């Protein structure tokens, strides 16, 4: 009785099947993130990945009952000076960049090659991507994911929505997230009532909210506040009218 043997799959055929499977996985992943970001463009988040990371950190360091202080506030309910302050402080190219400030990135790379003090060049769109979906850190993998989400955010959302999301998800104090909670917690005001000096002080704390005391600001924080106020004056109160007009169309 003769036995029949099934021929072994050809290596090229296996490689093609593997390639199609990987391509399918990539396409489904892209589709999921594309739809998810579109959804988040119209539905406000109840929390973010960065808030959850901060919560885990606080609980791991002894605060078993830690909670994040967070309250969503619509764009029109935020003082115009607060909107301008974060743009003046964090990303003055925001109204017209494509999600990245290429000149700032080039300057940061040159600086970091010559100095042990690392300088960042993240735009408001990049920081929004990190706050919503990622974690803190400087690994190349995380930065690649940040770039991927940044491209999708800039593609799918109007600039006003990106700025609104950033103002609502940025960390302003140890466990205080968003300008709504920050205005109430630090100044006992609504975000619509923030004066330019208060807005500039909140923006000054953004690079290092864990080390910045807005209630009793250091000399450094006051100098940074003064610089931001100068930048706001130079940019002008109508600097963001273009992105606001686009959002109304």
Structure notes:
This protein is mainly alpha-helical and 249 residues long. The chain is 60% helix and 2% strand. Helix 1 packs across helix 6. Strands 1-2 form a two-stranded parallel sheet. It has 11 helices and 2 strands. The protein has helices at 11-40, 49-60, 80-90, 102-114, 124-133, 140-156, 159-169, 178-187, 196-205, 219-235, 241-248; strands spanning 69-70, 176-177. The protein has a single domain, classed as Penicillin binding protein transpeptidase fold (Orthogonal Bundle), CATH 1.10.3810.
Would you spell out the secondary-structure blueprint of this structure?
Layout: H1 11-40, H2 49-60, E1 69-70, H3 80-90, H4 102-114, H5 124-133, H6 140-156, H7 159-169, E2 176-177, H8 178-187, H9 196-205, H10 219-235, H11 241-248
Parallel strand pairs: 1-2
Helix pairs in contact: 1-6, 3-9, 3-10, 5-6, 5-7, 9-10
CATH architecture, by name, is Orthogonal Bundle
Order of helices and strands: HHEHHHHHEHHHH
Provide the CATH top-level class.
Answer: Mainly Alpha
Rounded mean pLDDT is 88
Beta content comes to: under 5%
- What would the CATH topology be? Penicillin binding protein transpeptidase fold
Query: Which parts are unreliable, with pLDDT below 50 for 5 consecutive residues or more?
Result: none
Brief rundown of the structure:
With 249 residues, the protein is mostly helical. It is built from 11 helices and 2 strands.
Key terms:
single chain, 249 residues, mainly alpha, Penicillin binding protein transpeptidase fold, two-stranded parallel sheet, 11 helices
